[in-house]
Amino acid sequence: MHKRNILILGSTGSIGVNALEVVSRFPERFEVLGLTGFDRDDVLLKQAERFHPKFVGVSSGKVKDVEARLFGKGIKVVNAETELEFLAALADVDIVLIAITGRAALEPFLTAVRSGKTVAPANKEALVMIGDLIMEEAAQNGATVIPVDSEQSAIFQCLQGKDRDFLKKVFLTASGGALKDVDVERFDGLSVARILDHPRWKMGRKITVDSATLMNKGFEVIEAMRLFGLRADQVEVVVHPQAIIHSMVEFCDGSVLAQLGITDMRIPIQFALTYPQRLESGLKGLNFVELKELTFEKPDLKKFPSLALALDVARTGGTLPAVLNAADEVAVESFLNGRIRFTQVYDVVAEVVADHRSVLYSTVEEVLRADQWARERAVEIIEQQAKV
Ligand code: NAD
Ligand code: MG
Fold first, then answer.
1. How far is the CA of 321 from the centre of ligand 2 (A)?
2. Quick check: 201 pLDDT over 80?
3. Looking at ligand 1, which residue's alpha carbon is closest to its atom 17?
C-alpha cells in the first residue's frame, strides 16, 4: 500500500498529540513527513525521535538549539514562524493536519489548499476569518477539506453521499461549556484555573476559554457556514450536555441524521486521516443502556452574550467575523495572562465589534487589514479597561 505522507502543524498541542496517537496505530498507512510546534520542545523532540520526520518546525529563537539536539538524525529544522507555508506546499506532502491555534494557521491553510492537498483542519479561526476564500481555493485547486472539529466532522459524515440541494439546516450541538451550571453572578470572579477545567473535553487553553464563554460555539456556527455553504439561519445551536451527538443535519423532507460517539477527538481525527475509509480505532463504542438519556436545551444567550454576539456577526458577515476572531484572540490571551477578568473578555470583544464597519471583501489582504485593526483596537481597550 502506498503510504500517505502527513504533515502535522501544531503537533505538540492537544489535537497534535492525539493525531500522532492515531498515526501510530497505522504505521503501514502513514509516514510522518513533518512536525511543528511553538512550545513544549521536549515533547516535539520526543515526537521527532519516535516518528523520524524529514522536517521539524520550531519558533525562530529555538532553531539553533533544536538543530543541535537533533544533529545527525537526518531531520531538517525549520522556522515555524516563517516556513509553515514552505512545508505545506512540499510536493511530498499528501495530508496537512492543521492543529495550530488562532490566526497563525491562515497562511499555511491557504497554501495547503492552493497546493491541492488533503487538508484536515482542527483550526477554526482561519475558517472564521476567510473560510469562503479557503473553500473556493480548495475547489479550484482540487484540494479536499475534511474537518476535524468534532461538530463539523459530524456534519461532514452525515452529508456523505447526500445531495446538498436537499439539505435544509444543521443542528450544531454544544455541551454547554464549563459554566453551564454556574450562576452568572459568579462569572466575574472566576479564575483562569477554574475556566481551564472543562468537564467534557481536554483541550488547549484558548479553545477552553472560548468554550466557557460559548464563543467557541459561535465560531463553529461561522465555521459550518463556510465549510458547508450555509446561511446563518440554516445553523441552529442546541445545548446537549452529554456531548454524545456531535451534530445533526436535517433534510427538506424532515428527516434528521446525527453522528454519535464517545467524546474523544481521536475519532474525528482518524476519520479525517483515513477518509473515505473507516478503520478499527480501538476506542470504546457507545453503551446506550448506560447512557439512559440524551437531553437538549436552548442556549442561554443572556448568560452567554458571546454566543449572541457571534450569531449577529455570522449574520452580518464581510470582514466582521475576522474582527470578532482577532479581538477574541487578544482578549483571551489577556485573560490568560491575568490582565483582565473573565467577563471583560466579552466586553472587549463586543466593543471592538461595535467599532468596526464591516465591508464585503474579495482579497485576503482586506481581511488581514481588518484583523490587524481589530488587534490594535482590542489592545487599546484592554489598556483602558485593565483590571478596573
Ligand atoms: P493547543 O494550544 O493544545 O495546541 C496548539 C499547537 O499550535 C501547539 O503545538 C503550539 O505549539 C502550536 N502553535 C501555537 N501558536 C502557534 C503559532 N503562532 N505558530 C505556529 N504554531 C503555533 O491547541 P489545541 O487544543 O490542540 O487546538 C488547536 C486548534 O484545534 C485550535 O484552533 C482549536 O480551536 C481547534 N480544536 C481543538 C479541539 C480540541 O479538542 N483540542 C477540538 C476542536 C477544535
Ligand atoms: Mg468543536
1. 17
2. no
3. 104
Q: Which residues contact 159 (CB under 8 A, 6 or more apart)?
A: 167, 228, 249
Q: CATH classification of 317-388, choosing from 2.60.200.30, 1.10.1740.10, 3.90.1150.10, 2.40.50.140?
A: 1.10.1740.10
Tell the residue nearest (CA) to atom 21 of ligand 1: 38
Question: Is the entire prediction scored with pTM above 0.85?
Answer: yes
The domain ranges of the chain are 4-148, 149-263+289-312, 317-388
Which ligand is in closest contact with the Cα of 84? 1
Which residue type does 256 have? V
Mean per-residue pLDDT, 273-297: 96
- Nearest 5°: CA angle at 38, between 37 and 44? 40
Distance 8 CA to ligand 2 centre (A): 19
Is the pLDDT reported for residue 387 higher than 90? Answer: no
Ligand in closest contact with the CA of 109: 1
Note the pLDDT tens digit of each residue in 292-340.
999 999 999 999 999 999 999 999 999 999 999 999 999 999 999 999 9
The pick from 7, 9, 11, 14 for probing ligand 1's pocket by mutation, whose C-beta has the most ligand atoms within 8 angstroms, reads 14
Distance from the alpha carbon of residue 149 to the mean position of ligand 1, in angstroms:
11
For the residues 30-38, what does the mean pLDDT come to?
Answer: 98
Q: What is the pLDDT of residue 240?
A: 98
**Residue 121 pLDDT greater than 90, yes or no:** yes
What does the pLDDT look like over 219-247, one tens digit per residue?
Answer: 999 999 999 999 999 999 999 999 999 99
DSSP 125: H
> String of b and e for 118-156 (b: at least 16 CB within 10 Å)?
bbbbbbbbbbbbbbebbbebbeeeebebbbbbbbbbbbb
Level-2 CATH architecture, domain 4-148 = 3-Layer(aba) Sandwich (3.40)
State the angle between helix axes of 215-228 and 150-158 in degrees (0 to 180), rounded to the nearest 10. Answer: 30
Longest dimension (CA), the chain: 62
Pocket test for ligand 1, best of 101, 119, 203, 267 (most atoms within 8 A of CB): 101
Ligand nearest to the CA of 152: 2
From the list 316, 314, 317, the residue with the least C-alpha distance to 306 is: 314
Distance (Å) from CA 308 to ligand 2 centroid: 17
Give the residue, out of 109, 207, 219, with the most ligand 1 atoms within 8 A of its beta carbon, to mutate for a pocket test. Answer: 207
